[in-house]
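Quick start: read one record
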Amino acid sequence: MSTGTEERAALADLAFRIGATYAGRSLGDEKAAEEQWRDIGRAGLAAVSLPESHGGGGDMADLCLVVERLAAGGYPAPKLTISTAVAGSILARHGTPEQRDRWLPGIGSGELRFCFAITEPGAGSNSANLATRAERTATGWRVTGEKTYISAVDSSDVMVLVARDAASGGLSLLSIDLPDDRLALTPVDVHVPVAENQWTVFLDGVDLPADALIGEPGRGMRAVFDGLNPERLVVASQAVGIGRWCLARAAAYANERVVFDVPIGSHQAVAHPLAESYVALEAAWALVGRAARLYSGGGQAGLESNVAKIAACDAGLKAADAALQSFGGSGFTGESMMFDRFAYLRLLRSVPVSREMALNHVATAGLGLPRSY
């Protein structure tokens, strides 16, 4: 897959058209999300940023472009976050040749779906406090622990799980083929329009084969962040794209809606919040691009990815709020879908990493301030 100027333009247009196909559907519509995912797979978009040797092409900046354009068209694709950005990135950099051959082509075609299990009830995503343990056995690994807020366990084929290595105290990454009756699943009732169900996962002495290990035992921290930083960038790209969709809809409405003989967009009280949102989205998108290029160059881009995630989710939510206010009461109807997108953007401000945790990283890595946790 080439990603020159013309190719990027074609890629962007294709992603936008796929997103626009489902723009009238709720983000909680599982059928719409499933249909869109098939379109994404057929178009080859799930392979963007994966190694060319395994059917992929392009880099992280190209994947961010695809994600942003899908969302700007009106319907983001959360599965690209976990399958391509997280699992694909981890496997490309840390998987064995056999693991890459086994999984990367399926990720790229969209036929193989991954979920990622790091968050725990007592630790959140703070890797220093993770309690799930992986103990070496004669035939492989035995995993015991609990994970929560794990997306799409019920609709995934493979779970990548982060556990503490019992021998070294470091982190290990392990794969679990799904479904697996040894995992006890409890749904998490999330009152936000998302098509992927959330789960709490209990593992009580689950035995895994030796080749379930991804990377080196107890030395998985780098691999974890080689997945988490792309996750932040893809979520940031979603936020920018949805914010742009909201802004475009609001600008069109403000031009058409006439009250007291003039379009409401002629009033600065309507126009200025939309204009400020435009500025914020453009700035955030530039930060996403900078971080994505750094990651593609072989860096982790941790500071830059967190900066981009904060800026993009703030800007997207600001745009959605301004758009919702411009629509007035009609913004809360199913016809406009404006509140549907607003609620999703509010979720992105808190997950997959909270704004506060991202700011903690910026404070320490960017400013040299002491850790607060």
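The chain is about 50% helix and 15% strand.
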